[in-house]
Specification:
alpha/beta; binds guanosine-5'-monophosphate
Length: 208
């Protein structure tokens, strides 16, 4: 059996609950052996965040040198900061057969879909604008100006939902979690992955 992991891109307007959904999923669904890619960013670290766990926090200078050295699978400028996914890290995980969640924006999703067409993408929506604003405020991680900026970006991000393979609504956390499980499980059984995984078995079955 050949090892090949699947990339799951998850995008959502800020405050939709994407990070909590991914974290809960990884903890609850251990048998699905999901991993999360830790991005590089130039944004300031928030009080409860840890370097190397939530993000790899780096300077703009270092980020630009990584772009120059082609060390990113994708990168984008989001809310005036740079964010990027390490190419080396993703290749290492996928070649070990690990399935990986990428918590990235629509710009990064577009770049990855071009480079890795068989990756799967999921767009997560909040139940309403009001609820999103409430969640952003409750999160209490950003100042009012940053929250308003994120709300302004909401419609830009949301316009891209049709570019994704799946759409989830986070109106009920447990339901979103179980729907995510359906998606991941179905993708693992898709013809693309199954035919690579069981290449030898299929070859033997087809032998005359
Ligand atoms: P935050 O600053 O709230 O952690 O993230 C802001 C946005 O940047 C989120 O929509 C998140 O998905 C996106 N983001 C995080 N990491 C990456 C990345 O590596 N690449 C891209 N393109 N977007 C990212």
């Amino acid at each position: 059996m050949k090892k090949l992991g699947i990339l799951f891109i998850i995008s959502a307007p800020s405050g939709t609950g994407k990070s909590s959904l991914i974290k809960s999923f990884i903890e609850k669904e251990k048998s699905l052996k999901m991993n999360i890619s830790i991005s590089f960013t130039t944004r300031d670290i928030r009080p409860q965040e840890k370097n190397g766990i939530d993000y790899n926090f780096i300077s703009k200078k270092k980020f630009k040198s990584m772009i120059y050295k082609k060390e990113f699978l994708e990168y984008a400028k989001v809310f005036n900061n740079y964010y990027g996914t390490s190419l080396k890290n993703i290749n290492r995980l996928l070649s070990k057969g690990k399935n990986v969640f990428l918590d990235i924006d629509w710009q990064g999703a577009q770049q990855i879909k071009k480079k890795i067409p068989y990756s799967k993408s999921i767009f997560l929506l909040p139940p309403s604008k009001k609820e999103l604003f409430f969640r952003l405020k409750k999160r209490n991680q950003d100042n009012k100006k940053v929250i308003l900026n994120r709300m302004k970006n909401f419609s830009t991000e949301i316009k891209h939902y049709l570019e994704y393979d799946y759409l989830l609504i986070n109106d009920n956390f447990d339901r979103a979690l179980s729907n995510l499980k359906f998606i991941v499980s179905a993708c693992k059984l898709s013809i693309y992955y199954q035919s690579i995984k069981y290449k030898n078995l299929i070859k033997n079955l087809l032998k005359k």
